[in-house]
Design brief:
Helices cover 38% and strands 13% of the residues. The chain is built from 13 helices and eight strands. Strands 4, 5, 6, 7 and 8 form a five-stranded mixed beta sheet that branches. The chain has a three-stranded mixed beta sheet with strand order 1-2-3. Helix 4 (74-81) packs across helix 6 (104-116), helix 6 (104-116) packs antiparallel against helix 7 and helix 6 runs parallel beside helix 11 (206-218). The radius of gyration is 20 Å and the shape is globular.
Length: 286
């Protein structure tokens, strides 16, 4: 059954205390409260955003028949004209706008890759890469971790071990950035058991994970096929869902066993990226 987001008036402000919305808190006035902002208000409040690949200034514009008459694909219009078609009163499109503001590098890399994969025209079916890009754009998360045992547990879908707090600190030592705007839309219904599609960075620092993911997307190292993406049951993250008992991790529908023959690519190497990034920095006096 297709998900229908709740009406704005039915969403309590307490919903936005969920950790998944934390990165969007500077823009709370756009999504909390009973009144929808206009497209013009969204564009004005989010300020100047420049496409990280083309350098073009981006603008959120009303999606209507006049706009669509140019015949361009949604992604081509962004890359070629800097216009992001936005529907009024849409949670999906509002969260998309906020993700453009907060994660411009990632969004720009996805847009460039999608448009570059149009060699045969826009009327053909999506390529495997375009499907992967769309999956990540809608439901993506960027995950940073440094514990090989935890990565191994994820590889085999040992969910109790993967989500178990580290014995040294008593905390879950994994950084998760919610990127997909469809995930944010689903978080409006707190009872849902959500699963993100993850790009994984191992080693380095959590702060390096996003630029590494954007660089890997731009250079076509990742998102060439949807099967590259790892499922991450977001409801298993400590504190992200009510009722996280031991039985929850064994029985809830989001914690699926690994399918026969299913495996995942190696994560992006955060340590190597950190070394490359450091060597690329200009030295003092240069």
């Amino acid at each position: 059954m297709r998900y229908l987001a709740p009406a704005r008036a039915d969403v309590l402000d307490s919903v936005f205390a969920h950790p998944g919305f934390q990165a969007l808190s500077p823009h709370r006035s756009l999504f909390a409260g009973p009144v929808w902002p206009t497209i013009e208000q969204i564009d004005l409040q989010l300020g100047t955003i420049r496409h990280g690949q083309s350098g073009r200034t981006l603008q959120f514009v009303l999606q209507n028949e006049e706009l669509l008459a140019d015949g361009l694909h949604y992604e081509q219009r962004i890359f070629g004209k800097g216009q992001i078609a936005t529907r009024p009163g849409s949670w999906h499109d509002l969260f998309n706008a906020l993700i453009w503001r907060e994660y411009t590098g990632l969004k720009s890399a996805l847009n460039e890759r999608y448009v570059a994969d149009f060699p045969a025209g826009v009327d053909r079916e999506r390529s495997r890469a375009q499907m992967a890009i769309t999956h990540f754009d809608e439901a993506g998360v960027v995950v940073h971790l440094s514990d090989p045992a935890r990565l191994s547990a994820w590889d085999r879908h040992d969910w109790p071990a993967f989500f178990r707090p580290a014995p040294e600190t008593g905390r879950w030592d994994v950084s998760v950035t919610v990127f997909g705007h469809a995930l944010l839309e689903h978080l409006l219904a707190p009872h849902q058991l959500l699963v993100g599609k993850a790009l994984v960075v191992f080693g380095g620092t959590p702060e390096q994970a996003l630029p590494l993911a954007a660089s890997a997307i731009s250079s076509s190292l990742v998102l060439n096929d949807p099967q590259e993406l790892r499922p991450l049951p977001l409801s298993g993250i400590p504190g992200w869902h009510a009722g996280q008992t031991a039985a929850f991790y064994e029985t809830a529908a989001c914690f699926r066993p690994l399918r026969d023959g299913r495996s995942y690519p190696l994560p992006l190497d955060g340590c190597r990226f950190a070394d490359s990034f450091a060597s690329a920095k200009p030295q003092p006096g240069a």
